[in-house]
Amino acid sequence: MGARTKIDWCDATWNPITGCYHGCEYCYARSIARRFDGKISRDDIFSRTVTACGREWRIHEAEYEVLPYPYGFEPTLHRGRLDIPQGWKKPKNIFVCSMADMYGRWVPDEWKVEVLKACAKAPQHRYLFLTKDPTWYGFWPNNEKWPGYTEFDAYTDNMWCGVTYTGSERLPWAQEEHPFNPEDQMSRLGTASNFWYLWRMSGAITPYIKHRFLSVEPMRCDIMEVKNERDLGIQGGVERLMDEIFLKSQRTPFEIRPIFDWVIVGAETGNRKDKVKPRKEWVMKLAIRCEQENIPLFMKESLRETMGSDFRQEFPW
Ligand code: SF4
Fold first, then answer.
1. Relative to the CA of 99, which ligand 1 atom is closest?
2. Nearest protein CA to atom 7 of ligand 1, as residue
3. Looking at the 3D structure of the chain, how many domains does it have?
4. Has residue 192 got a pLDDT over 80?
5. Which of 163, 191, 219 is where one domain is finished?
6. Pocket of ligand 1 (CB under 6 A)
7. What average pLDDT does this structure show over 233-243?
8. pTM of the predicted structure, to 2 decimals
9. Is the same domain home to 227 and 304?
10. 178 C-alpha to center of ligand 1: Å?
11. By alpha-carbon position, which residue is closest to atom 8 of ligand 1?
12. 146: number of CA atoms within 13 Å, CB side?
């Protein structure tokens, strides 16, 4: 984790938290962390088990910076890394936790608060967060413990909250992550149709986030054609997932605009056997939609050859 990165849409990566339990098959971070696994005992005094969403998760805290991945890919807070952005005087666009999902359901609230406080100490930078489960951007059950860090004031104007969507394979996962709750109208819809996931993903329940972006990386299917199963009798619904995602919403009392302010798209890199190569027409459909909605689109270098003269790298700032 450091000032230099190969990721082309940011200037630097910063990993105060590493490790993730989502288990995506194409995960490059897991391979790296396992290769450099410090093989520290998972039962030491810095380890504990947390319960979230009805499951137990092993997590760790490293007080000092001795090894990059002391517990391999098991979620770890590295306290010694929290002040790193303060040492970068020149403003950077920082991808926070490129080696983790900081909003995975196993991440304790206090870890998130520690990271957000560290961001506040170095306000010269722009911070880019990315998760597969944006639900937790807005879920702060114990927020009275952190005055000034409720969901309503934690995300400042220099913070960009992103969500990754790679294709339809995420939807069964979403059902497992957000199981059926008969008391919850949205959950009930979600169980039947994944609507709950889409709703959360769209950021509709996190209106206080100033900037949102969508990352379609790696693109694994024609996401503009992924159908939203909707045999639910929802009046006025839409048929395609992306129609829903790009739907305009009330962003502030005075402003209606699309939910996302920026879209990133890229192909899977590396030599994985089951790698899916995005077709040009898949990317073009997304590009046309972004153009219609006036949303900047950043194509990763991995798409340069496929896209030819249609390749473009746009930033929203
Ligand atoms: S969410 Fe990211 S870090 Fe976690 S397994 Fe998937 S690709 Fe890896």
1. 3
2. 27
3. 2
4. no
5. 163
6. 20, 22-24, 27, 29-30, 100-101, 132
7. 53
8. 0.88
9. yes
10. 18
11. 27
12. 20
